[in-house]
Amino acid sequence: MADLPTRARVVVVGGGVIGTSVAYHLTKLGWSDVLLLEQGSLSCGTTWHAAGLVGPLRASENGTRLVQYSAELYASLEAETGLSTGYRNVGGVIVARTEDRMVQLRRTAANAVAYDMPCELITPERAQELWPAMAVDDLLGAIWLPGDGKVNPADLTQSLARGARIGGARIVERVRVTGFSVDGDRVTGVRTDHAGDQQSVEAEVVVNAAGQWAKALGDLVGVTVPLHSAEHFYVVTEAVPGVHPDLPIMRDPDGWTYFKEETGGLVVGGFEPDAKPWRAPDELPYPFEFQLLEEDWDHFSILMDEALVRIPALAETGIRKFYNGPESFTPDNQFLLGQAPGLRGFFVAAGFNSVGIASAGGAGRALAEWIVSGEPQEDLVGVDVRRFAPFHGDNAWLRSRVAEVLGLHYAVPWPNRELESARPQRVSPLHERLAEKGALFGTRMGWERPNVFGPPGSSLDYSWGKPPWLPWSAAEQRATRTDVAVFDQTSFSKYVVEGPGVLAGLQWVCANDVDVPVGSCVYTPFLNERGTYEADLTVTRTGSESFLLVSSSATTVRDLDWLRRHGAAARDVTDSYAVLGVMGPRSRELLAGHSPDDWSEEGFPFATSREARVAGVRLRATRMTYVGELGWELMVPVADAGSVHEALGATDAGYYAIESLRLEKGYRAFGRELTPELTPVEAGLVFATALSGTKDFLGRTALEQHRQELAGGGPRRRIVSFVVESPEPMLWGGELLLAGDRPVGQVTSAAWGETVGACVGLALLRSAGPVTTDSLAALPEVTVDVAGERHPVRLSLKAPL
């Protein structure tokens, strides 16, 4: 057994494709003092039995770029390390049996245009030319993806490991990490079962890349790594006529199956609708090296039956090997990356949901850049480990969820689709009352939230076109614009920052000036050192040394971690208060009728907040709106929420209406319009910063430089509002914008706008020159591609309403 060093700058735990990629990329960035520890042999966990598919085109641009980089790396790695990865660029075919799937493929083709990726819609006959062994009589169409490839996972891992060693990293196998050393809020090293005198290694940074063992390791130091293993199946067949090494990868998602060539035969695998969870993370066996689980032909039969529909020759083809290998999945089918909240220096790279091989190159680079730079260098919000809270780490909850999420890989990705398992997790004090009134709930950060209110027996039916619930949401929008509506916004994240010296910390982390009179409310972003978005929230000064912060439901852990890391520690009071949004032109009249307080324009101006009494309950009322109408957000003690809601008695409205209303007013949302890729200049929100003043703040230097670079013009990327000219098409976000035949941008958010009588939204527009009112007017006719059909739209720097 090799000796362990006493210290290393970075210790990477796990020698699969992810861990070796992180180590490799750290050395590429100049950090050579890297130690990788593997409890067995390299690639012996999940990596060795992965199918090895590398499909660069993903649902988001950032995801696409990440896998695109992986493919480029795998193709070039042998020249650097002398070890082949087995990478072959063979292309890919995705077939459709249903019109709903064809809509998805047309949208995928439009995404490819937006991301400048090759993709072609093809006929079933052309698909069969590319893949002669398949039957096509039941197909409506397909897409051809020339950029798809395949790789040998074990060979790839060895090549990455060789590259890491060349860069100075040290790799030690058969050493199991059994614990971690922690000093305060920082990890300081690892403890191992090494048989020699040296069992502990000091480290500045620890990377938990332990695959399905990552959750159990995280639990040792209170870091939530929400993943659970499921059994994952495929078979390798004997030789099939017409199959050759350069045969494209073929996916038949309506049959839940995929196919790729292997030594003249086929790998036949898939993602069955109802998965089979394996053991809990703290019950995984050790050792478990290059091992498989028992064959389960009964469970695999749903995939094999569908495979026979697509490839009839399989009925006469023998099976060489049945693979049942456990693999870990996360609650939302996105992997886990980043520095753990509350523990400096402890990073996670795990839970890759069957896309670990495709993602490893890009994810390894992204995490290495995060470690070296101190913050992410690209938009990783969707995979950030901080999107989950400690309550997501419950093993029973995870077991229930993983049975659903595995099957969603090949399900139709309906707009607004809500996961159904492991619910409810968190409910507002109004939940039962709203359910009785017809609320149809979605979920965010575990919270059950009303999406829309429907008649008895209704449900959230999904559609690419206008859904059945749209008239109900439209009625809620009309009530908000013309009368008054009440929204249960309890899921808002709420933080208290208080104590001596808190103002200085908040002034640094908030880009806007929050040194305002008590009772004033400030809209502000948190920016990173690159001057791009990390959060979007409101800050209310409640006292000389106390502040209330209200933020997105989904970003609680992320926000609190950001504040703490930048010297403004906050207390989470989210669960202590319900929030009722009372919105509409009659909101003042309604509240005044239940309160002795002054709700007049002079007595309660916009962007102010104070304690008030409504229906006999003392609460905090803040005159702020996310729907663009006169209104107040009432922060009510949980015990009193029901009585206040009942007294108000207004129309109840849900989050679908909020989405429509905010888009009619051009209000941006974090994670869609406001991302770590964009600055306030590009978002059109410089007014929400203190850039015109002298106050320093995190990100100011970069933001000033960005604005100076654009002096005399304007940003080449810009968030713009749009309205579809026709009331017929339904938009959901992600659609392609074209000026003439030239791609110019992509929709970031879209919804039906009842007030304007058509779909409205926001889009990220790209241009060779400044995006201005004049440049928008000079564009050729701008259209939006809705599943292959183009519809004219009106673009504007101003909101529709």
Radius of gyration: 27 Å
Q: Tell me the number of helical segments per DSSP (H or I, 4 or more residues long).
A: 19
Mean pLDDT: 97
- Please count the beta strands (DSSP E, at least 2 residues each): 38
Give the low-confidence spans.
Answer: none
* Shape designation: globular
> Which range does the strand content fall in?
25-35%
- Measured distance between first and last alpha carbons: 70 Å
The secondary structure category is alpha+beta
Helix content: 10-25%
Largest sheet: 9 strands, mixed
Please describe what this structure looks like.
The chain is α+β, with helices and mostly antiparallel strands. The strands form 7 sheets. Strands 4, 5, 6, 12, 13, 14, 15, 16 and 17 form a 9-stranded mixed beta sheet that branches. β13 and β14 form a beta hairpin. It is globular, with a radius of gyration of 27 Å. The N and C termini lie far apart (70 Å).
Give the secondary structure arrangement, pairings included.
Blueprint: E1 7-13, H1 17-28, E2 34-38, E3 53-54, H2 61-81, E4 92-96, H3 99-114, E5 120-122, H4 124-130, E6 141-145, E7 149-150, H5 153-166, E8 170-173, E9 177-183, E10 186-192, E11 200-208, H6 214-219, E12 228-237, E13 249-252, E14 257-262, E15 265-270, E16 276-277, H7 297-310, E17 319-329, E18 336-339, E19 346-350, H8 356-373, H9 395-405, H10 431-436, E20 439-444, E21 447-453, H11 470-482, E22 485-488, E23 493-498, H12 502-509, E24 521-527, E25 533-543, E26 546-551, H13 556-565, E27 571-572, E28 577-583, H14 587-592, E29 609-614, E30 617-622, E31 631-637, H15 641-648, E32 651-653, H16 655-664, H17 680-683, H18 700-709, E33 717-724, E34 736-739, E35 742-753, E36 758-766, H19 773-777, E37 782-786, E38 789-796
Parallel strand pairs: 1-2, 1-11, 2-8, 4-13, 11-19, 22-32
Antiparallel strand pairs: 3-7, 4-6, 5-6, 9-10, 10-11, 12-15, 12-16, 12-17, 13-14, 14-15, 18-19, 20-21, 22-28, 23-26, 23-27, 24-25, 25-26, 28-31, 29-30, 30-31, 33-36, 33-38, 34-35, 34-37, 35-36, 37-38
